[in-house]
Amino acid sequence: MFWEVSALGAGGVSIAVALYLYRWVMSQTNESKEMAEFSSAIQSGAAAYLRRLFQALGILALVVAAAILITLDWRTALSYLAGSTCSGAAAYAGMYVATRANAKVAWAARSGLKKAFPVGFYAGAVMGLSVVGLALVGMTVLYVVFRDPEVVLGFSFGASSLALLAKAGGGIYTKTADIGADLVGKVEFNLAEDDPRNPAVIADNVGDNVGDIAGMGADIFDSYVASVVAVMLLGAALYGEKYVVFPLLLGAAGILSSLIGMLFVRTGEGNDPGRALNTGTMATTIVFAAMTVGAAHAVGMDRPWGLIVPTIAGLLAGIVIGFTSDYFTDIDNKSVQDTANSARTGTAILILQGFSYGLVSIVPSILGISAAMVVAWVTAQHFGIAGTYGVSMAAVGMLSITGMIISADAYGPIVDNAKGCAEAASESEETIRVCDRLDAAGNTAKAITKGFAIGAAALTVLALFAAYAETVGIDVIDLRNPGVVVGVFLGAMMPPFFSALTILSVGRNAFKMVEEIRRQFNEVPGVIEGKVKPDSDRCVDIATRGALRELVLPGMLAFLTPVGVGLVLGKNALGGFLAGSIVTGIIFALFMANSGGLWDNAKKFIEDGAHGGPGSEAHKAAVVGDTVGDPFKDTAGPSLNTLITVMCLAASLFGPLIAKVSLFGF
Amino acid sequence: MFWEVSALGAGGVSIAVALYLYRWVMSQTNESKEMAEFSSAIQSGAAAYLRRLFQALGILALVVAAAILITLDWRTALSYLAGSTCSGAAAYAGMYVATRANAKVAWAARSGLKKAFPVGFYAGAVMGLSVVGLALVGMTVLYVVFRDPEVVLGFSFGASSLALLAKAGGGIYTKTADIGADLVGKVEFNLAEDDPRNPAVIADNVGDNVGDIAGMGADIFDSYVASVVAVMLLGAALYGEKYVVFPLLLGAAGILSSLIGMLFVRTGEGNDPGRALNTGTMATTIVFAAMTVGAAHAVGMDRPWGLIVPTIAGLLAGIVIGFTSDYFTDIDNKSVQDTANSARTGTAILILQGFSYGLVSIVPSILGISAAMVVAWVTAQHFGIAGTYGVSMAAVGMLSITGMIISADAYGPIVDNAKGCAEAASESEETIRVCDRLDAAGNTAKAITKGFAIGAAALTVLALFAAYAETVGIDVIDLRNPGVVVGVFLGAMMPPFFSALTILSVGRNAFKMVEEIRRQFNEVPGVIEGKVKPDSDRCVDIATRGALRELVLPGMLAFLTPVGVGLVLGKNALGGFLAGSIVTGIIFALFMANSGGLWDNAKKFIEDGAHGGPGSEAHKAAVVGDTVGDPFKDTAGPSLNTLITVMCLAASLFGPLIAKVSLFGF
């Protein structure tokens, strides 16, 4: 019981610190009316979207909970609702403080970097600490009450369901607004980014928050919980009690490490805020590694090194994949510069280059994930622990420092919006320069988190895959079985199909947005001259409605396909289905994130003056590339992590049922 | 021995008819000097490319044969060389007659469709009949001499090696020339397609021949042989002699059916030549189905219906996948028209739409392939035949009508070039209209063949995968084994990586081509005015050298990676590797072929007058889409079939060796 109390204690501390930081951030002032207005428009847009999203998700959650209640039991149904609620609460808290902190950061930037940076970082930390705190407390309470990892699986499924829809919906929202604003504002009317005359600017800024804060927070909440649950399930199947609760203890260690790591995040006036964030991540990593060694010995695990080494291997793999993930999208590297250079021959070759380098970029990450898996497996076995358990410990190790990682990540959109506030209020050049420096650090943190999130999701789903096999009692998933092969084909088809559906959604919605913006500029007198305020609410409304409506089909696919495959083709085919979806899910997630990032930076490279600079033909080509990349990197790509997690969880949850009633038994 | 004699006899008849048709086509006249000149430039360009390609491939073949000689035995090495030679000879024969028939078709078109159509079709039939004749004779002779399917496997590997490099090299060649010619000629200097002032026009027309005739011929030769070999290997492992030679007998039946089917390919002056081609395909299918039923009973197979039903299931699946494959790329359907419509908002959304519909288009084909596999497996088992043997019979069934399919396919580029000849010679509008009608039929045949080729390759590699497992003696390829999972990841990475390398090659080469064309227009006086003949040879040379140089890296990857994975991670991991590569190989092949075709037709739809027609902003966007799609559909996509076949064959050939010496035994 000591372990559970530790986990509850650490989770409680995390939530308490989050509340303290929340009050501190809210106590910071902003005395600019323009900034307050800009910020308040974002707040109300974001709140409107979240309200509608949560209404829709609430109904969905009740329907799914009812389905679970009928087919499984009330405890899992309750746990499912708790998971959705905790994940939603963490996302809401992060978004609430983020949309209020932006103007405060911008105001503090008038007094310099040293004053502004903590406002941004601690606002991000509210999100980071809420996520890990709520996740750990939720899982621990459910386990203490029910003593059954299968029930905690319901919590994870609830968190994942919410994450999938929050992420895909947020992705559709943000790119509808972004592409709409750019196509009409920038291209047709030559307005700058964030020009207040553009009616879609508020929707665009809201989009940054709903996509990158609420979406990313829900996504990592989901992976974090899923990795712990996978270990709990495997621990229960293979060993006993101790191996079930051990990941909760590591969760506690991860929270304490993150809190200690945050103490290292400080920066002076002349320093690089990016370095401060990296120092915090490094400190967290080292403290966590030490704590893992200590904890495994202190609580008297039988084969401590069989747990420690895979955990630390996963932790290091996460860091390495994170830091190397931005190699291909780094503005100083060959791939970006080659792509920018090809813009001189026009748009087509630029698209082809970015597409190809995105595909090439999957190679190092796949090698990294494979290496992490093999190392975790082999070292665990070497010390006498089952390989599958080792792989799932690697996932837990990777995700244990989530508190710090999300804090640094959420900082990004906050300072990005702060820059928008400063520009909307026509602040001094010096203030805007400070905001720019804050923003640059945020972009690096964002790139690292993206790689980290995919790496973590990959190991987590591999652990879930093992947990699925244990849950339904399959010893072998044989690729020589035609049912398994068909399962692999069907599973592999899902991520590209899902990506296509979400991108088509963005295209359809952006089309409507373009027509609305054109209508306001052309038909409402005074808008384009800046005399009449544009009707931002209509644009917010188009993005909101569109995102929710477009979620229906891909959402249903994600939930119903694995269950359908299981019911028709049986549990072995479903195992193949999961494996197929994991493989193409990771490949498409990596390729889309990196191609998108690469086109974005190729455009920035040209905007910095290369190949004729802004306004040149090369720049026009690069703008097209960036627009193509937008839904790749911010809609389709990031949703795939969550898609494969949801499908694995649905399979594990309904697996035992499926095993009994399937139509064909391949 | 009666069976082998039948196979040899049918193969001999096929070659004899090909020779007869060759002489008939060559006896057709062309009295236009301009056409003869245009045709002769294509002939010498194509010959120059093939000569250099075969020189390079000859060296490669000797190196690989030496490696086989050292690690395996002299019989397999000899068989490997025979396979390369037969495949190369068929490709060369097809190309030789095609590059000479174009002007003859154009001349005959002056006398009308009824006269011109047979010249084009019989020229294509030379290729179709050479492919099946040489393949069947080659395999049968080797089997009669050595009585060992493992030796025939060497023949298949030789054919595949040649096909991979012919296809990828041809793909790089043709798109280097095409994109170069378009970017400078059409976009910068406003010249028409095939304008003789453009120095890259000859290279572009040569490209059509090397890509679509030599490349496609080698590709289907390769699948045809591989499907038969897979059955032979499985037959030897599971049953006896009869089951080894049965596919050779079906090959003989396929040739006779194709010859009979060709008798139905006739058209009158007012008829649609596309219908004539489809009638021929249908007749071939029906005759072959009847012959299969007869043959299985006549030769006294024990469980005839266990062979007949899977064979016919495969045959029908091939036809269905072929005919439906052009649904997504059909100019009259929603996906093309939606994409064309999105061109009104600019290039970016058009790219996103075509990309997304390409991804959606994989769904029906994957379902079709899965259904064919399950039906073949289940029906075979129902009649008492092993499921794996059933799946491989389905592949043989699909490919047995290859003779007819390739004949119709090779017809396409011939009449396309004929149109080029007619335009170069400024023929009458009536003649050009006849050429247009011939060409339209060719495009449909091409679309059908593309789907057919991917479906056939999918079933073939699934059969090869089963053959691999039998060859190295694996009972189970377990997805719960971490080595297998890592293998799947590495294998799945290969097709996207290979695609990226070939597309980057096209980008690099096209860049050089653009500079050369610009140089000639800007620096050589008289070229742009049409007074001085452009230096086509330099453009041909850039395309040729570039294609060969760029083949080195992807070629090495294809051969060395499976062997490397096997040697390091063991035979189970190599099984996973093959499965992973098959899945993403088919997905990327389908997506790239269909996205490319869709952009192409969206452009044609706009050129036919929609959304402002030629010269509008929408048209410019559609031209970019078409250029992006070019290397998708003609370089990367079509090479993937062959890539996965080569890797499966390499694994089967070196598998027994790998099983003994691998470093880790996962």
Describe the structure.
Two copies of one chain form a homodimer. Helix content of chain A is 85%, strand content 0%. With 666 residues, chain A is an all-alpha fold. The longest helix of chain A is centred in the C-terminal third of the chain and has 45 residues, at 617-661. Chain A is globular. Chain A starts with a helix and ends in a 5-residue tail after the last helix. Chains A and B meet through helix 5, helix 11, helix 12, helix 13 and helix 15 of A and helix 5, helix 11, helix 12, helix 13 and helix 15 of B.
Topology of this protein?
The structure is a homodimer of 666-residue chains.
Chain A: H1 2-27, H2 33-71, H3 74-109, H4 113-146, H5 149-188, H6 201-238, H7 241-263, H8 273-298, H9 304-325, H10 334-342, H11 347-360, H12 362-382, H13 387-399, H14 402-424, H15 429-472, H16 482-523, H17 536-569, H18 571-607, H19 617-661
Helix pairs in contact in A: 1-4, 1-7, 2-3, 2-6, 2-14, 2-17, 3-4, 3-5, 3-6, 3-14, 4-5, 4-6, 4-7, 4-14, 5-6, 5-16, 5-17, 5-19, 6-7, 6-13, 6-14, 6-15, 6-17, 6-19, 7-8, 8-9, 8-15, 9-12, 9-13, 9-15, 10-11, 10-18, 11-18, 11-19, 12-13, 12-15, 13-15, 14-15, 15-18, 15-19, ...
